[in-house]
Structures are given as C-alpha cells and as structure tokens.
Design brief:
Elements lengths: L13 H6 L10 E3 L4 E4 L4 E6 L2 E2 L7 E2 L2 H4 L1
Length: 70
C-alpha cells in the first residue's frame, strides 16, 4: 500500500458557518482556516473540522491556550 493518503483539506460551507454557534455558550464562532477549527473564545474551545464537517462536541474540542483565548 502506498502512503499517498494526504487528501486536500475541505473547506466548510460558508452558509453553515453563518448559522453555527458554540454548543457550550451559544456564542459566536470564528473559523481558523490554518488550524481547520471553529473557535469559541468565550468557551475557550476549538472544535475540529474533519473532511469539511465541523465536529461540535465539547469532548472532541481542544482547549485554547491563554494566548489563543485573547
């Protein structure tokens, strides 16, 4: 088997981004294209996006560092 498994990152549908809110705070999210995450500064969480699908589960989110939360 070859190791050519790195598929290009899929962008999230912009219309979806307009309606999504943080599942913890119900506050706004910002899209971090470089990290491929949706970020809630209020909740201090970054939700991953996998194959173009936001994973909006708090258990799957990464906690923001103090610097990221500012």
């Amino acid at each position: 088997m070859s190791e050519e498994h790195t598929a290009p990152q899929k962008d999230v549908d912009p219309k979806l981004l307009e309606v999504l809110v943080c599942p913890v705070t119900r506050g706004p999210l910002t899209y971090d294209r470089k990290a491929n995450e949706l970020v809630s500064k209020q909740a201090r969480l970054a939700f991953p996006i996998r194959e173009g699908v936001p994973i909006m589960l708090p258990d799957e989110a990464r906690e923001l560092t103090d610097a990221e939360a500012r």
